[in-house]
Amino acid sequence: MPLSPSILAELAAIVGPQDLLTSCEDLLVYSFDGTAALNQLPGCVVFVTSTAEVSSVLRLANRERIPVVTRGSGTGLSGGSLPVPGCIVLCTVRMNRILEMDEANLTLLVEPGITTLQVAEAAAAVGLFYPPDPGSMKISTIGGNVAENSGGLRGLKYGITRNYVMGLTVVLPDGEVMVTGNKCVKDVAGYSLKDLFVGSEGTLGVLTAVLLKLIPKPAAKKTLVATYSAMDAAAQTVSDIIAAKIIPCTLEFLDRTTILCVEDFAKVGLPTDCEALLLMESDGHPAQVEEEAARMVEIARRNGCREVRIAKDDHEANQLAAARRSAFSALARLSPTTILEDATVPRSELARMVRFVDGIARKYKLRIGTFGHMGDGNLHPTVLTDERNHEEMHRVEEAFHEIFDEAIRLGGTITGEHGVGVAKKGFLPKFAGDAQMRIMRELRKVLDPHGILNPGKMFD
User: At 204, is the secondary structure helix, strand, or coil?
Assistant: First the structure.
């Protein structure tokens, strides 16, 4: 149902006519996110620039029972920012200021529309470090990172977005503004409400400011690439490194399909005659880095790696990391539709899960490239397909059902970092169980009794 002229006039009065989009041409750009094969035109798009504007929009939407879908850069891969019919898309990309850099307390206060890369660069400019680094960090926004609890290449050692959120300013569905958390390292006064909003996928409130924790920059790092003739051996190397109580900064996996695509795309000299490679990075005190790297080389060789290459300088190390970040883009060049998933298993089950995905590709006659953050068990089986081929898309759906079932059976999860959104809400009950589903539904109903925020996401 289209939004009425009176509602559109109220929205224009809140944000200004120039920050309200209503034409089909303009809305088309906001009808999809990074998720394949999903799109829906919204009722309108509003660009907000302040907490006060967000509050006014939500008060109006709550009064009129109009659904609201918050959107940053639209890089999500589970349909989390996909519009619903007749909704207001509330876009926060213009709320992109650094509000405070506090070097004394190692914190950074930012608006939600700032990109992850801009946060990392602001920290680096004063000799500090913001570790979370999703593959889309050049364009993904901090608001989206918090809403999806994003991970990244450095998640193994440094953790994910949740570990760096110290406080939030949140506008609740009725327009009330709440500030939760602070700069204190220790604070156990009451429930940790900020943690409720991290990973809530825009279903509980709209973030308008994020207080982030920064840490000292590591003094040294060393990047290595190990190549293998068998995927199993690479996966077993990861399991053995963790079992040896080594926690490197980065421990990434690429299979043959992904290697070929990435090298063709990035041209950084990756070997193209192997079945798998591991990108490993150690950082910290120089002596620790040397020792850790040597032990990882030893474990890789014990598992039959063909070669270990050590990056000669920071430039080459950064090139290798950038090549890994380009895996999705590189694979997406091969087929009209690219479906990137993120089943996650305990690290001890990695070899078994890699074998399983390989078998599923053969069973359903699909081209699947597998890469991922193997150090934290997070695999990205990526299907290269064509959404116009309905028979093949049915096989894709069946394949992912088996992959997620196996991940759960092995003690894993249906998503390590992309979120549930629309794409995985059908799998959530089996993973979460009745009690968790009931509690999540009840929490959502308490905070958003009229169900206006991101309806249809995570669960119905």
Answer: coil
Strand partners, 247: none
Q: What are phi and psi of 167, to 5 degrees?
A: -165, 160
Helix (H) or strand (E) holding 303: none
Amino acid sitting at position 54: V
422-450 average pLDDT score: 96
Give Cβ neighbours of residue 212 (< 8 Å, ≥ 6 apart). 107, 108, 109, 110, 119, 130, 142, 164, 165, 166
Phi first, then psi, for residue 170 (nearest 5°) are: -125, 135
Instruction: Enumerate residues 6+ apart whose C-beta is below 8 A from 247.
Output: 156, 157, 375
Average pLDDT over residues 182-186: 96
**Is it the case that residue 1 has pLDDT exceeding 70?**
no
Three-class secondary structure of residue 49 per DSSP: coil
SS3 294: helix
Q: Which domains does the chain have, with CATH numbers?
A: 5-91 (3.30.43.10), 98-216 (3.30.465.10), 220-409 (3.40.462.10)
